[in-house]
Each structure stands twice: as C-alpha cells, then as structure tokens.
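Q: Please design a sequence for this.
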C-alpha cells in the first residue's frame, strides 16, 4: 500500500511539472474552442466529469483551448453525437459505453452482465492495457478514445411491482440502451426489453408506455425517476463505463502538446467523477427512499446470474480474446 501511495504521489508531482511546463508552451498557439456534448442534466456525473475536464484543460493551456459544454442532449442523442464527431460537426463528448459499442463492437464486452464484481475491479481493467487497446480501436472509425469515466453499476426500476428475482420481471416493458447485449440480457431475465434513446425513455415513462428502465443510482436520482418509478432493485447487473471521446477531425487540428493536455485532463476528470459518484450514492439512495421509492437492496443475485448464462454463450466469442483476458485479469 505504501508503494502505491508513493508512486501515486510521484505521478501527481510529475503531472504537475508537466502541466506547469505546458502552460508556457501555449503562448504562440491560436485559440481553439471545443464543443463537448452529453445527453444528461447538470446534476449528473457526466456533467461533473465534463466541468472538471473544462477546468483542467483551460488552466493547463492558459485558456488557449476553450471547452464549451452542451448538456441535456441539446446537440442530439448519443448516436447522433458520435456521428457528428466523425464528420466534425461535434468536437467531443462524454458518451455512455453502450452507444459507443455500436461503432466498435468489442467495447460491449465491458457490459456483459455481472462481469465486474466491484468498481475497483472495473477500474483496474479499464485503466490498464485492455482498456487502452479498446480506446485505440476507436481510431478505426474516426474517433479518438481518451479515457473511461463511468455511468456506473446499473440497477432496475419499474412502476408496477417489487422485483426480487427474474420471475418478477415477466412481461414488464423495460427500456434498455440501444445495444444488443442489454437487449438480450433483459430478454433472458424475462422482461420485454425495449431499446430506445434516453430522451425518448423519459417521455415514455411519464406516459406509461414503458414500465421501467435500468440505470445507475446517480441517474435515477438526478432525473427524479421516483416520480414515475415506484420500485428499485439494486441488481447491479452491469457496470457501464462512459467514454471521453473526440472526433478525429477535431483531434487532428490540435498541436501535440494540446493533445497531451486533453488526454491527461480526461483521465483526471474521469477519476474525479468516479470518486464523486461513490461519495454521493448512499445519500442519493436515502433521498429516493425519502421520496417514497421502495428499494430492494438484497435481491436473489444467484437467480439473476444464472438466468443470463445464455448471454455469455451468445456473445463470448464475438469479442475475440477480450472476455477471457478480462476474466483472467479479474482473478
């Protein structure tokens, strides 16, 4: 533990020295404004990550790189944002892993149900060689993967009944992200899985055309889902990363020293968001309870895990050697 603490301190000092040197390097750089978009509100972890990133980048480039944040899907849903990054109409964003996996299929390996036993286990894989390899693969589709923030462990909510085991999900209309792993996971659990964009899901819950959804506690809290959802199950069925991602058209216009600052800032902002999420979760759960939501924090996890075995059989080989490598790294 002491070795880790010393190495972390040394890294912090070296980054500070690099950053100090960088500020002077930007004297001759033409100012650049980058539009960073996300689809959630200003109380959400994505916005916390984005604002920390903005602060770090503007400080370290002496204001030469200006970050403008567009929250609340003002520039489009996540697929639209990624497509915009590819062609240069959007510069960058904090994007949930699920939609990113529609562009690089192997990214979806992280979202196999019950893969990661804890946030720390996920961070070790994401911040290590496997995670970096997958970020690098985004360049094949004209995107630059920068760092893994998080959406977090996802949990089930619904408006109809308490859910303790897969049998309780039978027939419930559950919104899932537009990603086949999520769709198949919830179909195996017995739900009527309905893929749709988050902005549409909010309206569908209010209108009662879907019964529920699955998301981390911070999303359930920040979007006041207790107003339409009476029940939550702390299923923690999937750990969902989120990605600081940039379009190659925007990335390629930056000088190398600015690229280095952006990569450093993205990693630090991601780690900041993870820490804030962890600190806030217990308070958010209590607030949801106080608002009247019934929360099951001890569902039948063995039954849930057994029910999703076919998802591993279907997708395991699709991700090449990534799944066995992750499982080995988690041992």
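A: Design:
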């Amino acid at each position: 533990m002491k070795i880790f603490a010393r190495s972390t301190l040394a890294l912090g000092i070296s980054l500070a020295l690099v950053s100090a040197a960088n500020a002077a390097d930007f004297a001759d750089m033409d100012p650049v404004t980058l539009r960073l978009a996300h689809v959630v509100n200003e109380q959400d972890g994505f916005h916390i990550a984005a604002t920390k990133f903005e602060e770090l980048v503007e400080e370290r480039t002496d204001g030469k790189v200006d970050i403008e944040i567009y929250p609340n899907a003002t520039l489009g849903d996540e697929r639209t944002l990624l497509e915009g990054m590819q062609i240069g109409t959007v510069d960058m964003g904090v994007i949930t892993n699920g939609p990113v996996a529609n562009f690089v299929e192997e990214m979806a390996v992280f979202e196999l149900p019950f893969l990661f036993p804890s946030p720390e286990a996920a961070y070790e894989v994401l911040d290590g060689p496997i995670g970096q390899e997958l970020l690098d693969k985004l360049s094949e589709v004209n995107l630059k993967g920068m760092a893994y923030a998080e959406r977090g462990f996802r949990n089930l909510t619904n408006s109809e009944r308490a859910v303790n085991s897969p049998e309780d999900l039978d027939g419930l209309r559950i919104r899932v992200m537009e990603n086949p792993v999520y769709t198949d996971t919830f179909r195996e659990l017995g739900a009527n899985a309905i893929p749709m964009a988050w902005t549409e899901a909010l309206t569908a819950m209010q209108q009662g055309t879907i019964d529920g959804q699955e998301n981390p506690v911070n999303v359930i809290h920040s979007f006041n889902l207790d107003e339409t959802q009476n029940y939550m199950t702390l299923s923690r069925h999937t750990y969902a990363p989120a990605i600081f991602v940039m379009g190659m058209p925007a990335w390629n216009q930056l000088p190398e020293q600015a690229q280095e600052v952006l990569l450093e800032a993205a990693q630090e902002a991601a780690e900041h968001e993870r820490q804030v999420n962890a600190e806030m979760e217990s308070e958010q759960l209590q607030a949801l309870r106080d608002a009247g939501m019934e929360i099951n924090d001890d569902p039948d996890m063995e039954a849930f895990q057994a029910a999703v075995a076919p998802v591993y059989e279907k997708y395991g080989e699709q991700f090449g050697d990534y799944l066995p490598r992750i499982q080995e790294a988690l041992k």
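Q: Thanks. Anything notable?
A: The first strand starts at residue 32 and ends at 37. Confidence is low (pLDDT under 50) at residues 1-21.
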